[in-house]
Each structure stands twice: as C-alpha cells, then as structure tokens.
Amino acid sequence: MKNFISKLNWRLILVHVLATYFFVFGIKLLSFFSDIEAVKVLLTNREEPVGDDYVFRIGMINLYNFYSGCAAIILVFIISLILCKKYRWYWGNSLIVFIFSMTMYWLGYTGWTYVKIVLLMPGTIFKQIEPEFITNILILLTFGVLFLFNKRIIRFVETGRFTNCQVTEPVS
C-alpha cells in the first residue's frame, strides 16, 4: 500500500481529471445531435404540437446524453493509460482518475451548472443552435486534448515546473 501511494502523481491526476471534464461535456453536447430537431423544440419552448413520440424522443436524448458522458470517461481512461505507458508513468494514476471521474459523474457532482456559464459563452454569438453547439463542442474537446497532449503540461506533470526541462522520451 505504501508503494502504491508513493507512485501516485497528483499533478497527473489533476490534469487528467480536468481533461476528462472537458471531454465529458464536449461529448455530451455532441450527443444532442442524435435528434437535433427535438432539442430545438425543447430549447425554444415552442407551443406548437410536437407529436406523440416527442416524450420518447426527449427520453432517448437524455439516455444518449448520460451514457455519452460515461463513454467519454472510458475514452479518456484509455488515452490516459496509453500516455502512462508511453511516458513510463504509473498506471494507478489513470485508475484513480477513472474511479474519481466516474463516481463524481454518477453522483452528479460535476459542478456543470456553475461552469457552463463561462464554458458555453463563445457559442452564444450564433443565433442558431447547430453552430452554437458545434463551437462549444470544438472548444471543450480542444481544451481536453490540450490537457492530455500539450508538451508544457506533460513537462509540468513530470517535473512540477513549466520551464524548459527535458521531457522523458516515449518508449519506441
């Protein structure tokens, strides 16, 4: 147990949790495109008849939305494991990120209601829903990718500094 704790890297865990956060909400926004017409009706609160299957369509959107977040956590876990192997980091860090992220997601403790005001602001310059969603998806996924693959962040994970220190070369 002592050996396990000594191998943990809190910087790696923090960075990968943040990357997971961005991936989850980017992919959750992407899931709305499974039935964008029903989402438009839901977001615009139109009082026109929507059909008998509208409640079913909204239920399916909610189902896709929830499970796409789970899929995003699994995707980042796999990417994190690959990066741990590539840079010779301890794989237990990725496991802790996965368990922590999945637990917070299932319990609903993501803080999305507070953070979305800032993160979804760039998309509000568009009048239509599709360009707004696409802009926000691209921004969220870009941040997620940067947190995982940026050399400066990798250097921070390894050394604790953002200076020009040597980064461990990946295994060939």
Put the structure in a nutshell.
The chain has 172 residues and is an all-alpha fold.
Low-confidence stretches: none
Put simply, the count of helices is 8
Binned strand content: under 5%
Query: Structural class of the helices, strands and pairings?
Result: mainly alpha
What's the total number of strands?
0
Element-level helix/strand string? HHHHHHHH
Estimate percent helicity. Answer: over 70%
Shape annotation = elongated
Distance between the termini: 31 Å
Mean pLDDT: 87
Number of domains: 1
Radius of gyration: 19 Å
Biggest sheet, in brief?
Answer: none
Transmembrane segments: 12-34, 54-83, 95-113, 133-149
Keywords: Membrane, Transmembrane, Transmembrane helix
Describe this structure in words.
The protein has 172 residues and is mainly α. It has one domain (8-159). It has helices spanning 2-6, 10-31, 36-44, 54-86, 91-107, 112-119, 129-149, 151-159. α2 (10-31) packs antiparallel against α4 (54-86), α2 (10-31) packs across α5 and α2 (10-31) packs antiparallel against α7 (129-149). The two termini are 31 Å apart.
